[in-house]
């Protein structure tokens, strides 16, 4: 189970914006060796719709615009990504990631 360094988002991100691509391999043959990805946990929990994960490609995308300056806006997101095979019994592995939203000067003085 691995991931690369995503491109980040400096000023404005067109949506959906690719943050990261996860990959995993399974030595089983056929369908038993297929790996599916999912977001198994998100914190803060009200942020569950902020990101989406393609279950076959492992691409994690930002699916909602975020504004650092909004009152109560989350500045840090903790996600748990699961890679699961389709064997019987099903095997999985987890990786925890943290995404931090940083402020940019998008308001004139």
Question: What is this entry, summarized?
Answer:
Helix content is 0%, strand content 40%.
Task: Provide structural commentary.
A four-stranded antiparallel β-sheet has the order 1-2-5-4, with no helix packed on it. It has strands at residues 2-3, 17-23, 35-43, 51-53, 59-62, 76-85, 92-100. The mean pLDDT is 79. It has 109 residues and is mostly beta strands. The chain is elongated and about 60 Å long. A hairpin with a 5-residue loop joins β4 and β5.
Topology readout:
Layout: E1 2-3, E2 17-23, E3 35-43, E4 51-53, E5 59-62, E6 76-85, E7 92-100
Task: Record keyword descriptors for this entry.
109 residues, mainly beta, 4-stranded antiparallel beta sheet, 3-stranded antiparallel beta sheet, 7 strands, 0% helix, 40% strand, elongated
Structural class label? mainly beta
Q: Please, how many helices? A: 0
Q: Radius of gyration over alpha carbons?
A: 16 Å
- Roughly what is the average pLDDT, rounded to an integer? 79
- Note the beta-strand portion: 35-45%
Sum up the overall morphology in one term.
Answer: elongated
For the sheet with most strands, the description reads: 4 strands, antiparallel
Helix content class: under 10%
Low-confidence stretches: none
Strand element count: 7
What is the succession of H and E elements?
A: EEEEEEE
Lateral arrangement of strands in the main beta sheet? 1-2-5-4
Distance between the termini: 45 Å
């Amino acid at each position: 189970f691995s991931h690369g360094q995503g491109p980040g988002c400096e000023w404005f991100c067109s949506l959906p914006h690719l943050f990261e691509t996860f990959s995993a391999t399974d030595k089983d043959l056929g369908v038993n060796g297929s790996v599916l990805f999912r977001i198994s946990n998100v914190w803060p929990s009200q942020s569950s719709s902020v990101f989406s994960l393609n279950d076959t490609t492992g691409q994690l995308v930002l699916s909602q615009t975020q504004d650092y300056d909004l009152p109560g806006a989350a500045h840090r997101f903790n996600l748990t990504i699961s890679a699961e095979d389709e064997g019987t019994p099903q095997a999985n592995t987890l990786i925890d990631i943290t995404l931090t939203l940083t402020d940019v000067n998008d308001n004139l003085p």
